[in-house]
Amino acid sequence: MTQDVSSVTKGPPSGAEPLIRIEGVGKTFVGAADRTVALRDISFDVEAGSFVSFVGPSGCGKTTLLKMCAGLISLSTGSISYRGARRPIPPGDMGMVFQTAALMPWRTVMRNITYPADVLHLDKREARSRALELLKLVGLEGKESRLPQQLSGGQQQRVSIARGLLHDPAVLLMDEPFGALDALTREDMGFELQRIHQQSGKTILFVTHSIPESVLLSDQIIVLGTRPGRILKTYRVPLPRPRTIEHLQSPGMQEISAEIRALLSDNESRSVGMLGD
Ligand SMILES: Nc1ncnc2c1ncn2[C@@H]1O[C@H](COP(=O)(O)OP(=O)(O)OP(=O)(O)O)[C@@H](O)[C@H]1O
Ligand SMILES: [Mg+2]
To answer: What is the DSSP letter of 75?
Structure first.
């Protein structure tokens, strides 16, 4: 189910084959004593070059879904296709930024950022010069020789964003990448990400808890509910880019933010009600 923001024009229909197709995907974690249905019947398409956000309460399966796209978690049902073939996104085509920075404490900032080049056997000199550019981009110029513990949590997360971009992947999977940043840095990084997206034509799958952030950045917002994790609604945001802070105040954006908020709080009260049954 896709809903367009009423006050803006409709986006072009997606006739071409999508870059990523998720069809009927489900995940049940089976433990020694219990089973958790993390996701049920998830289907959506991601067009090449688009920015797709996932919004939903804690535990609705956002991280699980991204990890399935990356081939890090198996599917219980359904299928994932990438460029028309039934497979997850190949490692060389994808950069991942996790919820926590997940840096290697014994490696310097430079060697953490160039880690994908080691794994993918890329040219070391090129990787170093690209890492220096990326350090500038994320505002950490001059910090390449530091160890992770000599950086703040927000700075560590910025290192992990640079690492995700190192090999210039076609697809970026970002799991709450800005969660550890202060509000102002977060806003700056959001606009940086929008710039990177526009300039590079990368496809970005982005998990966030911030509704305004998702509305500002996305072409498509997938709102997930919990118990079980499932899609409540998909929104398209075909507003022109670049989007600015002022756009956030526009009626179209305000309307969609309010609707997502209402949808999520309705889902939350229903699932709390179910628990009480
Ligand atoms: N390896 C695992 N084994 C068992 N259950 C798991 C595993 N990984 C996740 N789960 C369960 O699956 C559900 C979805 O977890 P997931 O981490 O994907 O949620 P999320 O939407 O990313 O939450 P958050 O916003 O808190 O990061 C949760 O109920 C979680 O407990
Ligand atoms: Mg998560």
So the answer is: -
